[in-house]
Amino acid sequence: MRERAKGGRLRLQPWMVEEPTERVLKALDAGGVEARFVGGAVRDALQGLDVGDIDLATPAEPEAVMALLEKAGIKVVPTGLSHGTVTAVVPPRHFEITTLRRDVETFGRRARVSFDADWAADAARRDFTINAVFLSRDGRIFDPEGGVADLASRRVRFVGDPHKRIAEDVLRLLRYYRFEARFGGVAGEEEARAACRAAKDLLPRLSGERIAQELLKLLDAPDPIPALTMMREDGVLGVVLPEARTLLRLSRLIAIEVKREPLLRLSALVEVDREGAFALARRLRLSNRERERLSLFASPFLFDAEGGERALREALYRLGAERLGDLALLQTASGTLPQERLEAVLAFARSAKPPVFPLLGRDVRALGIPEGPRIGRLLGAVKEWWEKGDFAANRALCLARLKELAASESGE
Questions:
Q1: pLDDT per residue over 128-159, tens digit each?
Q2: Of the residues 164, 199, 281, 372, which has the fewest C-beta atoms closer than 10 A?
């Protein structure tokens, strides 16, 4: 850990004193409202990581918070009034501000809350100890659940009884493994894992979107293999992703990848054909773009790994440089493309420009051919000829071929 609290303090970070943060805190100060940083911002700052959106906790009720922010001219969004949460927008930051609360009654992912909690009671209802650390604006640390020590020892521990925490919100089961991937050790915390094993049959209650979000965030960790191994051992992986049968291929991909790409990692982890990739994407409710990419990465691969320069040019034309490189990485991870050949393919993808067909519909119309299906047919015929010729024909040659085909169709 690069940044540690010394004597219960954290050295002031840029995000704590920058103008957007100061605007929000001053707006609350004007009403005598105390606010402390909490959650991911504090956890990541303690780890020396970059901080994105900032969460704040306050004893003030959400309506009072909204009134103070609006009075200061800050845009505020009532993102979850019934749960005590509003969002202050001060570009480029978003500040999620939540009233201290305790759960009166839980209903799966929802809860009826009461806004009469103190700081310790609010911490006691959070998911993990490392997310239950409060930080004052002057750097004082309030750690009622021992999260700082857990973070330092790479221990991901539920607050209180892990069975109860999961019963309150089964998504916490998947979040446990995601946090293990980023902040945990190799073997995990046995009491937490036992609770996850006991509750794994509740996972089908989650929506595909929620499962996908957690899986992709987990796969974005520098090394997700230990956490995925725990998930497999605990029977969790088989419930949420039964297609995950190629952990070794994912491990090989991570060893050679150029950058972290969660969807490519997912493709390496699952064993599916193209039809299976579409089915998986539907189940996880992936976006259209993600679905197309997942199917592209599925076996059989869409280019000849052992082909020569012509095969590479064709793959570059049909796939683009980024997808060509991704598929080459997957083939090497699968053992079908040697490492030395991979380097050559990646170098080609970085340096070569994809071929661009030099004709457009207006070139056909310039020959006096009216709008209609004939334009597309002629363009398609020239394009096919150009592709078969290894994309070598320039615009002049393609125009000559177009005129030749048009004339032959007209019987001239």
A1: 999 999 999 999 999 999 999 999 999 999 99
A2: 372
